[in-house]
Amino acid sequence: MTNNRRIKRHSRKAGLPPGTLVHIGERKAEQIRITLIDYNEQNFQERVVEKAEECFPFKEMPTVTWINIDGLHSIETIEKIGKNFELHPLILEDILNTGQRPKCEDYEKCLFMVLKMLTFNNQTSSIQSEQVSLVLGQNFVISFQENVGDVFEQIRDRIRNAKSKIRKMLADYLAYALIDAIVDNYFLILEKMGEQIESMEEELIAEPSDKTVRMIHALKRELIFLRKSVWPLRELINSLQNTESSLITDSTEPYLRDVYDHTIQVIDTVESFRDMVSGMLDIYLSSISNRMNAVMKVLTIIATIFIPLTFIAGIYGMNFKYMPELDWKWAYPALWLIMTIVVVVMLVYFKRKKWL
Asked: Where residue 322 sits, what CATH number does that domain have?
């Protein structure tokens, strides 16, 4: 089954010149929504704007402005915002292409970042992905999302609080806070996947089945997808740390180092989970082999016990006329006694050899 989160229709752009705006990906929002938050230490305003033109005056304001666009299917709106905020055509092209690899690019007047915002679907036990594009300017941050709903609500609450640190910082700190919120959400996903792995390990040891193998392969695919989304983050944050752009201030660098450490922790955990899931297949094969060996041991012991009994019964089942035991009164019970003694002796022998 084709998974839309992994395969995008890049063929729609085949032959078109660079910078051509074409939305590549699934349309996840019915209507585009633009929210604006403008703040400094003393002032704050938050509102939903009807038209992109309402955001334009905030470009030159000394306050920090966060413009969030939910929905990428309106190329006209994206183009208007890009033109007003002097975004390079290649930035707009990458924003509309939702199959981008996480990255950071320096366009002198702004920094452009692409990340994957992940959520865990409890019903399907799968990871849902959404591309988030961030543009950091001199006094603004523009975020582009595929759908309404994100992991940034705590950031909004902090901005609404006049005493919070974010109100005293510049736009680069806001960009850091958004990246940090995305990375922190990865830990929640890893917790869910860790619980799945523990449950699956118990099932593997207790009663493995074909369903368990299918679950292992599904989990392995999710981890590969998670690794693909997380691994490039290290390069992204490292680029922000080492950039010579004046948009990243010295006061934000320690926070970037902190989120870099979090990224490394996520990557290490993902790698550990991948090793554990790969080892689960070995555990499954070992469990099946052990169960088969146990069954074969029981069958072998039963067959071994019946070999001498079959031999004795075979002898006295032959149709010879002159067999001295045939006319003996106690021949039948004696034969049963001999057979019983043979079984008991063999069972005792097997027990001492620890075959039972």
From this structure: 1.20.58.340
